[in-house]
Design goal:
This protein has about 250 residues and is of the alpha/beta class. The chain has a domain of about 170 residues: 3-Layer(aba) Sandwich (Rossmann fold), CATH 3.40.50. It is built from eight helices and seven strands; from the N terminus they run αβαβαββαβααβααβ. It has a seven-stranded mixed beta sheet with strand order 3-2-1-4-5-7-6. β2, α3 and β3 form a beta-alpha-beta unit. The longest helix is centred in the C-terminal third of the chain and has 17 residues.
Length: about 250
């Protein structure tokens, strides 16, 4: 069962997350046969503060950004206020309130994993046109990098039971088992960014997990203990390799 998490406290830190590579978005648009079209419609589900939304806005389309957390969408609305093709609604991916058979593309940028994925796929198929495309994507840190191994070791010193969640799983099975989508496409692209240790920690604050909830005293205590060890062991600046991973499918009905 997926928890109904409130991301209000994380909203201010989303600006520290690396955005998705534009080439990955280009590939998704090409796969959806939208590269040469104008005025197509996109629903960006769990739009957050608009990271993926602003990348989609470079195409000649109309975007409905769907976000349940006001603290997130307030930042997103301000960030996209000059982009007239974007509208915002308050809803979630299992009940978007959007009209049926309306959209050419439905995207989930780092949001598919926080929903009941089966229900989200049913809702996505409802609002997509036949042949329209579902796409979910995430940026993942390279867990084999020396600095990341050190970070993982520090975390497990404080939280021995720590493990990565659904966001790092292969999404193919849940998409195929829904019976709603065909022609599954998987994309993977590496990229490297230069990051300060302070901004790396700030990016962490944009993530909510079951091991340290920053809205609680116990969660703050755990996170601060982890951060103290990270500041003492890692350099003040370093390069981070990320891999953007995306799964897409075409709506059958």
């Amino acid at each position: 069962m997926v928890e109904n998490w409130d991301y209000s406290q994380q909203a201010a830190y989303y600006k520290y997350r690396p955005n998705y590579p534009e080439k990955v978005i280009d590939c998704i648009i090409e796969y959806a046969d939208l590269a040469a079209k104008k005025d197509f419609r996109v629903a960006d589900i769990g739009a957050g503060t608009g990271n993926l939304t602003v990348l989609l806005a470079k195409y000649p389309c109309f975007i409905t950004a769907v976000e349940p957390t006001s603290a997130m969408s307030d930042i997103g609305k301000q960030r996209t206020k000059e982009l007239k093709q974007i509208s915002w609604i308050k809803a979630d991916g299992c009940n978007t309130t959007l009209p049926a058979k309306t959209f050419d593309l439905v995207t989930f940028g780092s949001s598919f994993n926080v929903l009941d994925r089966d229900k989200a796929l049913i809702e996505t198929a409802r609002i997509l046109k036949k042949g329209g495309v579902f796409s979910c994507l995430w940026n993942h840190r390279d867990l084999n990098a020396d600095f990341q191994k050190e970070v993982d070791a520090i975390i497990k010193e404080i939280v021995p039971e720590y493990e990565y969640g659904v966001r790092r799983q292969d999404q193919r099975d849940v998409i195929e088992n829904s019976g709603l989508f065909a022609d599954i496409m998987y994309l993977e692209m590496d990229f490297v960014i230069r990051q300060t240790l302070e901004n790396y920690i700030n990016a962490w604050k944009s993530v909510k997990n079951k091991y340290w909830d920053l809205a609680t005293p116990d969660g703050k205590k755990i996170f601060e203990a982890i951060c103290d060890k990270i500041y003492s062991r890692l350099p003040p600046e370093f390069s981070i390799k990320y891999t953007c991973r995306s799964w897409s499918g075409k709506c059958k009905k």
